[in-house]
Specification:
By secondary structure, this protein is of the alpha+beta class. The protein has five helices and six strands; from the N terminus they run H-H-E-H-H-E-E-E-H-E-E. The protein has a four-stranded antiparallel β-sheet. It has a two-stranded antiparallel ribbon with strand order 5-6.
Length: 202
Amino acid sequence: MIRAWLERSLPGSLTQAPDTSMEPSTLASPLMPMADIQAWWRCTAELVGGMDRIGLLPPGYAPLSPQDAHAQGALLSRTRNEVLRDVLPSPDAVQIWDREPAGSPQRLAWLPSWLPLGMDVMGGLLFADLRDGPLRGAVRSFSHDGGAGERIHWPSVRSMLADIAAGLSNGTPVDGYLAHADKEGQLRWRPTFQAPLTRAGR
């Protein structure tokens, strides 16, 4: 349903030559991506890449390829955790936090078991929390200022995909946002409390 909506509403957002490098089977991952994450990467493989990649995740996160996802995770593990080294409660604090149940908030560090899914223009991330526990696979957000809080956007990547598909096809809210295609051919998300756009505004 996502592809059908994009073909109809944003025809320039899909490529005629899907990025085969985004296939999970080509990526060695210590996180052992789950089936729904593999489905997510198959979905995003058909999106036009680079700066033209649409913000498929509300309110404007652009999907990351498997390679970019792991590169961003590795970058944050090096840079953020290194900067925070002097304020961590112990040298092995990151490893201890990484063994906490999935869904546990973490305001300081970027954890090894978090897998980025999408990035916004400010460098914020949506990620899948792949730590053990009942909430393993939950989709959460991470900001450079606030880290990862308690909010669960979706309980799984599969439910995120289903929510986006329903929102695009039926016009229902997706995590508090409504989708529309603007006159520049971009996917935009507006908060549900904002007044509907007129036809002229589209």
